[in-house]
Request: fold
Amino acid sequence: MSGSVFGEIFRISTFGESHGSGVGVVIDGCPAGIELDESVIQYELERRRPGQSELSTPRDEEDRAEILSGVFEGRTTGTPIAVLVRNKNHKSGDYGAIKNLFRPGHADYTYYKKYGIRDYRGGGRASARETIGRVASGAVAKRFLAGLGVDIFAHVIQVGDVKADNFDRSYIEQNPVRTADEKAFPLMERLIMDAKKEGDSVGAVIEMRAAGVPAGLGEPVFDRMNARLAYAVMSMPAVKGVEFGAGFAAASMKGSAMNDEITPGGFLSNNSGGTLGGITTGQDIVMRFVIKPTSSILVPKKTVNIKGEPAEIVTKGRHDPCLAPRAVPVAEAMAALVIADMALIHRARSGGC
Amino acid sequence: MSGSVFGEIFRISTFGESHGSGVGVVIDGCPAGIELDESVIQYELERRRPGQSELSTPRDEEDRAEILSGVFEGRTTGTPIAVLVRNKNHKSGDYGAIKNLFRPGHADYTYYKKYGIRDYRGGGRASARETIGRVASGAVAKRFLAGLGVDIFAHVIQVGDVKADNFDRSYIEQNPVRTADEKAFPLMERLIMDAKKEGDSVGAVIEMRAAGVPAGLGEPVFDRMNARLAYAVMSMPAVKGVEFGAGFAAASMKGSAMNDEITPGGFLSNNSGGTLGGITTGQDIVMRFVIKPTSSILVPKKTVNIKGEPAEIVTKGRHDPCLAPRAVPVAEAMAALVIADMALIHRARSGGC
Amino acid sequence: MSGSVFGEIFRISTFGESHGSGVGVVIDGCPAGIELDESVIQYELERRRPGQSELSTPRDEEDRAEILSGVFEGRTTGTPIAVLVRNKNHKSGDYGAIKNLFRPGHADYTYYKKYGIRDYRGGGRASARETIGRVASGAVAKRFLAGLGVDIFAHVIQVGDVKADNFDRSYIEQNPVRTADEKAFPLMERLIMDAKKEGDSVGAVIEMRAAGVPAGLGEPVFDRMNARLAYAVMSMPAVKGVEFGAGFAAASMKGSAMNDEITPGGFLSNNSGGTLGGITTGQDIVMRFVIKPTSSILVPKKTVNIKGEPAEIVTKGRHDPCLAPRAVPVAEAMAALVIADMALIHRARSGGC
Amino acid sequence: MSGSVFGEIFRISTFGESHGSGVGVVIDGCPAGIELDESVIQYELERRRPGQSELSTPRDEEDRAEILSGVFEGRTTGTPIAVLVRNKNHKSGDYGAIKNLFRPGHADYTYYKKYGIRDYRGGGRASARETIGRVASGAVAKRFLAGLGVDIFAHVIQVGDVKADNFDRSYIEQNPVRTADEKAFPLMERLIMDAKKEGDSVGAVIEMRAAGVPAGLGEPVFDRMNARLAYAVMSMPAVKGVEFGAGFAAASMKGSAMNDEITPGGFLSNNSGGTLGGITTGQDIVMRFVIKPTSSILVPKKTVNIKGEPAEIVTKGRHDPCLAPRAVPVAEAMAALVIADMALIHRARSGGC
Reply:
């Protein structure tokens, strides 16, 4: 793993900037024989793309996936699967005004410090458009995991101060916030639309659940399943924290309340979030993570230009006032990539001769 | 990275169980020419070892570090540095009673599911004794980073419901809780001692700060500095969540409050926690993580034996009622390992010809 | 490294089959600021492509490289560089006759055994067309290395029993065999044309030289420069052996003849081939490797079909009777990838604080 | 893989210098449940150790292996297996005379260039003593492979100009040269003893065979089985070349002779050396490699000191006049490590859901 390569066995290499000629991914290590065509990938890309509702930026790209290799007669061959999505709607002119300014909250400043280059075209590699490669490869990982009986989904459980209390899985894909709580939805939606009107943005919390994960996945001591998932989700843009099971609430708990009792019928609770010692228990993996409010806002802010001189900035253009709804499929993709990889690593490392 | 190997350039491979003949680490990729002797490692091991106060288990091992290789005439040679700490105080007899039971909250169940083996000797590889290899190698990473001007420390900011409000760095190593808040200390101590008397345990939150980290470290898009740190700290025993800067509070924030403004004199706030786009800004890295209450408690709990039959269990023996004080040096070690690695990777990947 | 990923810091991920929609590569870890455009890559692809002379197959594809990402305003940005070459001349109909037969000397049999899939379209991933990704990324590595003063080239030193005795570097690219010996060229050419007429093929030996490599590159004990180069060149199709410096002749030498003496003016000989203990000496790296005769021949041979039944086969179609001339740029690419990677790794691992 | 870490799943990390306090290895990724105790490792170390006959240096160390972790009740647990061998016979005084001189043919010069450190104690990390970690871990890999039916052995097929013509496997361990040719043995022995008397040394060729390797191992396109084996064997001290099957002789062959025909009963020849397209065929893997003559000789040679001033040097002390006999178990170990790793990787990457 390094830079834009992720995973050990089910290994991806993503590429592409917001304003280059395309973005995509190469998947190396996907087993042979899995049914795959472009529609599997396209389905997830549609869930990620902008312009799905008035809650998100209207950048209306097709984001059409092309499989370049690794599939023959509708099945994976075991060789690298390359997926390309062309960039069609560059409009780099939109960004000219802030060409020499570092947008607060964005990676402009740090990319410049790191690489000595100011790719001012909409964030370059730091653009959320980079996540297309993740979602495309995650779609393949999901397909692989479906064969193992693993079911992964995510949903928005908090927007600003509004928290979801109810859970109706079927509702998630029926509302543009992607919450599972029909009552919380209008409140969440209003918060987002209000922020939009103010030229501001709002943060959120997403929960990811993986059901059907076999017990025994995760490689101590460093490659715990939860450690890998935390790594994966923290590598997504705008994520500032992650927790499992009881999470931060565990600080206030006693061991007598925290420990999940075991019975012949299974565990009696899931404070652990699906792992013990970093190895899956067979219970659901439950992970939550926080997405900061979108950095691109119309509220004026202090910054400096590339010469270090003071300036004021507002970030015009098309931006989601809340990143969470479109981060849902990205989180699912990252979880799928990790679980697929850990399943394959376990297959390699377990068993004797 | 896989299993017990961690890091890409500054790479460690740890080994050892609680009741084998020794634990330790091999460090590959530490640059040559760094001053090092056993006292550097021993200093950190002393901070980690049990029996430092009545808050922790009295298991009074010497935990004496021996450098087996990689150091010549007081300096690192660039070749692998192996460190061995012998296990002296096995007392595996203590564990006989629960030989065939899975302790709730422990990794007994999952190790058995994964490996098909029941190493009942005090947790085997899942014992916290495993962290000696982390601390020993972290001491070397800290020494390397000191030469770059990086200063890493951690402290306990919450025990149960008691939160630290004040910060006095010099106080951290003067109290057995390792909090920086002199007023909170007695309350935290009382919570821990009360839990101990009840045969119970209590959770906590630790904050890690790294100052002096140069801007530009972190490798997008996956190997963000914060993603690697999250990975590292989530790989520690008993950690259930991690956050950076504003963390989970960012869910309730507006972008206009979250974005750290930039001036010619620097950033005006640090909600980002020291990274933007996963690359260090030059500000302090600020990370917090939660440690669950110790799983070993005297309160009776339901469990099953390796045949799947129901049983009741209490975990006798020597256990810290709160893991946080001794987790402080482990967290510092993990942070040091990540930052050293990212500094070396950046050195490799940056710059042109 | 695994499967189709190669390198640690300067890391490539190649993809594509002979009869899919495209082949290419993603380069992750190339430093920022290197001048690069498609012509740099195209130049090397032209040297690799079929149809350059009557010595090679007339498959006359354009093999036009498109850079999809990682380059901005003519320079690398430090982010992944993706290169795509479309397949235009599929003609998979040519292969229908041998659809269910395993061609002797080819990877048909082993791919089927490994993946359970028979991709009969011209070798699939095992086709030499796969090397386009190597050559494209090698062109970038060469460009990077040129900035360090490293100069890499290869030439054919043996075809069948004809060995080159003279060396004129400027002659290499002036003859279709790519030998540096003007006298040997017509003999080599005749051997190849004779084999072609017979429907047969012939083997060869190539020498690769890298000049200007700084002393100190290579990471003991496993990642010796020569070990990595051997790995790289043995990963090319049809290579059956590799040697450095004195090579296999060292078996018959005494230490008193083998040891390269050192003087204040430098080494007096180069039996070592440019490394000692796997670390570069600053002398030229000298590597030779053997390419087996092309497996696709018109001479009838025994084989079996996918049911295991006996059959006889001839391999019609377009094939180079000698693979060496087109393997020259591939070998240069692989050497460049290794040396660039080792230079970057050394940069990371060397130096103290 | 990097530096002293080798392998992807069956991954080793070796450590130790000739004159430090110990050498050894940590194995991460060995499956659980394999029978293992110290005698398995000790057996191979005895084959590697000096002083087995008058053909080798009399350095008579015990080289006693201690397993520090990863084994419980006689079986591997799936956790890291650490093996330590103490250095007992330092005699670093022997090396004082050449403290500031670079020994020709040795890695003294390049280590100094790389690390800026002159560890004059018998080669430091570049000493052949480093191979103990390889042999110890290779013994575990062999044990794992035995369970898969894989049988690995090596033997000396050439010393100086004397080549073996006959093959009697049972004879290999009955003669100190480790040749399988009883007739060639006395000639080989005489060459070595003559070189010893002259204070000189002699080169050799070793053949490694692996039988019973299942078809399908090896990961195209880079991690071909033969590429990994070449990498492994070229990482051994003093190796200058490696070939498979027909090897360099393939340069003079026609395709019609080279291609191994396939019949329902199997392949009719093994010019490929056991792989096609880098994937095992199920035939024996046949690899040969050349070992240069020992660099430590009594014949005076020109060199420079660390100031760059001219000097003359002879290398006294205890040295094998031919490295090959003791390199046999090292080669077997490296082959076993590669094949075990490739078997586990294949297990991970193959198969569908």
Q: What stands out?
A: Chain B touches chain D through 44 residues (CB under 8 Å). Chain B has seven helices and 18 strands. Residues 324-349 of chain B form the longest helix (26 residues). The radius of gyration of chain B is 21 Å.
